[in-house]
TrEMBL record:
Keyword GTP-binding: yes
A UniProt-annotated Pfam family: FeoB_N
Keyword Membrane: no
Name assigned to this protein: Ferrous iron transport protein B
Xref: NCBIfam families: small_GTP (TIGR00231)
GO molecular function, one term: GTP binding
Residues of the FeoB-type G domain: 72-234
GO CC list: plasma membrane
CDD domains reported in the protein's UniProt record: FeoB
Membrane spanning residue stretches: none
Keyword list, A-Z: GTP-binding, Nucleotide-binding
Length: 237
């Protein structure tokens, strides 16, 4: 990837070609287009159809398919504050979670377990962060978790209404060599304000799975689980 990054969390990566593509990905102010009501039909489709990075894995999610191995895998959720990350965490893990301070800090980290298509995952909900170049203690803890705990997959949750401001962190995660799935959350709110996002095109440009969700109404979460399992199995195959 061609982008270089400035250390200020609010600045965009210097990669003109990427940002030119964004004009084709995001279409705003389409008030004449009625918002979609059936989000289950819109989001809960096969991961291969929506994500070119997952194609060529037919049959991976069949109910008779055995897990790749018996080990518990690790999924780390990252994202800015107020993007719905905790809602997604609760949906992935259920009610049995542990909350503790990260060693040597007063920053809380939440952990839980989830089972996706016969695979068991430890799911870690990290403090909000804007950049891999930490400014706050919360960002330092999240950065440490990402590099010390060696996750099988990092799910970056972003707000569809503010996608442009949040993609720099996605690019930083990819530059760092982390296995990333991008979850564009609050799609229902974005569409209600007249915004359309071409998730397929965004996936093609980034080269990673991109999943649209409306987590508060549980739409797109089944697709996210499928994307996680297929992506991790493909990486270890």
């Amino acid at each position: 990837m061609c982008c270089n990054f400035r250390k200020q969390a609010t600045e965009l990566p210097i990669c003109p070609l990427f940002w030119e593509e964004m004009t084709d990905i995001i279409i705003d102010n389409n008030s004449h287009l009625a918002p979609h009501k059936n989000y289950r039909e819109r989001f809960d489709v096969t991961a291969r159809k929506e994500n070119p990075a997952l194609r060529g894995n037919a049959g991976l999610l069949r109910s008779d398919k055995k897990p790749a191995n018996g080990k518990t895998k690790k999924l780390i959720l990252v994202g800015s504050p107020n993007v719905g990350k905790s809602v997604i965490f609760n949906s992935l893990t259920g009610s049995y979670v542990t909350v503790s301070n990260y060693p040597g800090t007063t920053v809380e980290v939440t952990r839980g377990k989830g089972r996706f298509y016969q695979e068991v995952y430890e799911v870690v909900d990290t403090p909000g962060m804007y950049s891999l170049f930490p400014i706050t203690e919360e960002e330092r803890v999240t950065r440490t978790l990402l590099f010390r705990e060696k996750p099988d997959v990092v799910v970056h949750v972003v707000d569809a209404k503010n996608l442009e401001r949040m993609l720099p962190l996605t690019l930083q995660l990819l530059e760092a060599g982390l296995p990333v799935i991008l979850t564009v959350n609050m799609m229902d709110e974005a569409e209600a304000m007249g915004r359309r996002i071409d998730l397929l095109r965004l996936s093609e440009i980034l080269g990673i799975p991109v999943v649209g969700t409306a987590a508060t109404s549980h739409h797109g979460l089944d697709l996210l689980k499928k994307a996680v399992v297929e992506y991790v199995r493909k990486r270890v195959a």
